């Protein structure tokens, strides 16, 4: 039997404000436990929350960037639950009146452009963090009261791959707008998924399962792939799919039951009595709309039209604002767009991946990459030497011209010196010469390699090929 997979995502993004949502405590990541706290975020008796306007600004900005309608009149609600990391025993959030609603994100699928609906975006406060030791547990309230937006998609995704694409686009948009630093490793971006299956052609939704504890986009995709397969196999065995919450176990590569629907919380939402209604007028919305930057899709189209880059290059370069900024700085320094793109998507991204680094961790300036490419274009160094210079540049952040000069890496273009070197190599490799004369073209590549090795990679490859051809024809 063929099945259709139905996926919806709930994403929490930590907002990039300097202070918490209802008090003046810092939102800085880390710090000694329980030092970023005050009576308000600790929920002490008599303390009252005051809404941080910047939180509303950022939430509206995210909503506009995600094509949402902004609700003009909203209010906060209490979400009641008892857990050690929630000092008030409730969370101040939004329930019936989210700040933003009815938006969408467009992703490029194999079948073309697809809209993934966004049901709502609401603001809320984060909880603290439970710290479990071998023989005891502690609570760190530094994170309690840090402002979040929860972005709830519609169940429009039909594969784990689409879910990952949606998350990647969402992350890029939030990064471009500056509303969140979207660092999953610091908990700034967290994702839960709802997934169900139904027989192909059916219009009724199946029983949904919530999946938690996914700390990377790859983990989201793997967890949903596993869960879809688990549900399909259960369905075919005639088993009933239970509505439950499951946890992704990265080590085992499977989802594990956490709690069933019967064990789920009843949050007993009711309006927050300590806060007045939030009124957002048109002037406020339009002022934020005017502050929106160029978003990923618009930047991607510009790279295609203005720089003549292929769709693939443009997609990769604009996937991260900082990566796109680095590319444009290189172009502004005089670099040719396609050459710079090749270096970024080749050596730079490969090195960053190998070292688990981000583009902002690079020590050298964009202008240094432009200089490196220029040294190759001028024939000062070869492409092979350029990669060696790049490694030094990556390690030290030094100017490539300085590295080339100090290490004596200038390319040899003296035809007399190269001819002498070639004849020496030919004399030392008579069998390769004979093989070439016998029509074995691979011998030419071997000889070129020996010449480059003898010159320590400094010989100009074009001149080597030209003179080698001449000398071989003489023999």
UniProtKB/TrEMBL annotation:
Alphabetically ordered keywords of this record: ATP-binding, Ligase, Nucleotide-binding, Protein biosynthesis, Transferase
Molecular function GO labels: asparaginyl-tRNA synthase (glutamine-hydrolyzing) activity; ATP binding; glutaminyl-tRNA synthase (glutamine-hydrolyzing) activity; transferase activity
InterPro entries noted in UniProt: Asn/Gln-tRNA_amidoTrfase_suB/E (IPR017959), Asn/Gln-tRNA_Trfase_suB/E_cat (IPR006075), Asn/Gln_amidotransferase (IPR018027), Asn/Gln_tRNA_amidoTrase-B-like (IPR003789), GatB (IPR004413), GatB_C_1 (IPR042114), GatB_Yqey_C_2 (IPR023168), Gln-tRNA_amidoTrfase_suB_CS (IPR017958)
Source organism, top-level taxon: Bacteria
EC number: 6.3.5.-
Domain Asn/Gln amidotransferase: residue ranges: 325-472
GO terms under biological process: glutaminyl-tRNAGln biosynthesis via transamidation; translation
Pfam families in alphabetical order: GatB_N, GatB_Yqey
Reaction(s) the record says it catalyses: L-aspartyl-tRNA(Asn) + L-glutamine + ATP + H2O = L-asparaginyl-tRNA(Asn) + L-glutamate + ADP + phosphate + 2 H(+); L-glutamyl-tRNA(Gln) + L-glutamine + ATP + H2O = L-glutaminyl-tRNA(Gln) + L-glutamate + ADP + phosphate + H(+)
Gene3D superfamilies xref list: 1.10.10.410, GatB domain, N-terminal subdomain
SUPFAM superfamilies: GatB/YqeY motif (SSF89095), Glutamine synthetase/guanido kinase (SSF55931)
Function: Allows the formation of correctly charged Asn-tRNA(Asn) or Gln-tRNA(Gln) through the transamidation of misacylated Asp-tRNA(Asn) or Glu-tRNA(Gln) in organisms which lack either or both of asparaginyl-tRNA or glutaminyl-tRNA synthetases. The reaction takes place in the presence of glutamine and ATP through an activated phospho-Asp-tRNA(Asn) or phospho-Glu-tRNA(Gln).
Family that this chain belongs to: Belongs to the GatB/GatE family. GatB subfamily.
Quaternary data: Heterotrimer of A, B and C subunits.
Official protein name in the record: Aspartyl/glutamyl-tRNA(Asn/Gln) amidotransferase subunit B
Organism from which the protein derives: Fonticella tunisiensis
């Amino acid at each position: 039997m063929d099945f259709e997979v139905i996926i919806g995502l709930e994403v929490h993004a930590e907002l990039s404000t300097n202070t918490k949502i209802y008090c003046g405590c810092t939102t800085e990541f880390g710090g000694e436990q329980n030092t970023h706290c005050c009576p308000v975020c600790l929920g002490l008796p008599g303390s009252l929350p005051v809404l941080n306007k910047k939180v509303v600004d950022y939430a509206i900005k995210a909503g506009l960037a995600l094509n949402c309608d902004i609700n003009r009149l909203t209010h906060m609600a209490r979400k009641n639950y008892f857990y050690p990391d929630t000092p008030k025993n409730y969370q101040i959030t939004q329930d019936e009146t989210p700040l933003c609603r009815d938006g969408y994100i467009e992703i490029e699928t194999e079948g073309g452009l697809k809209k993934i609906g966004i049901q709502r975006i609401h603001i809320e406060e984060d909880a603290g963090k439970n710290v479990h030791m071998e023989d005891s547990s502690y609570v760190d309230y530094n994170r309690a009261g840090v402002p979040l937006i929860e972005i709830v998609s519609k169940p429009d995704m039909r594969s784990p791959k689409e879910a990952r694409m949606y998350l990647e686009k969402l992350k890029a948009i939030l990064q471009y707008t500056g509303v969140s630093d979207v660092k999953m490793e610091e908990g700034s971006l967290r994702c839960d998924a709802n997934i169900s299956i139904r027989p192909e052609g059916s219009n009724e939704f199946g029983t949904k399962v919530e999946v938690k504890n996914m700390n990377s986009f790859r983990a989201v995709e793997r967890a949903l792939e596993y869960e879809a397969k688990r549900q399909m196999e259960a369905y075919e065995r005639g088993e009933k799919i239970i509505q439950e919450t499951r946890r992704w176990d990265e080590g085992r590569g499977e989802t594990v039951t956490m709690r069933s629907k019967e064990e789920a919380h009843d949050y007993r939402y009711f309006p927050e009595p300590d806060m007045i209604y939030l009124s957002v007028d048109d002037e406020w919305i339009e002022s934020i709309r005017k502050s929106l930057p160029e978003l990923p899709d618009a930047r991607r189209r510009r790279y295609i039209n203005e720089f003549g880059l292929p769709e693939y290059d443009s997609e990769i370069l604009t996937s991260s604002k900082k990566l796109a900024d680095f590319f444009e700085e290189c172009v502004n320094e005089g670099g040719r767009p396609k050459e710079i793109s090749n270096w970024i998507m080749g050596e730079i991204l490969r090195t960053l991946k190998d070292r688990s680094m981000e583009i902002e961790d690079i020590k050298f300036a964009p202008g240094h990459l432009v200089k490196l490419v220029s040294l190759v274009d001028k024939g000062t160094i070869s492409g092979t030497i350029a990669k060696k210079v790049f490694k030094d540049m990556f390690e030290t952040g030094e100017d490539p011209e300085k590295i080339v000069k100090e290490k004596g890496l200038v390319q040899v273009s003296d035809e007399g010196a190269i001819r002498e070197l070639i004849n020496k190599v030919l004399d030392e490799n008579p069998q390769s010469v004979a093989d070439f004369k016998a029509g074995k073209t691979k011998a030419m590549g071997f000889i070129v390699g020996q010449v480059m090795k003898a010159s320590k990679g400094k010989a100009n490859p074009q001149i080597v090929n030209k003179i080698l051809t001449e000398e071989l024809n003489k023999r």
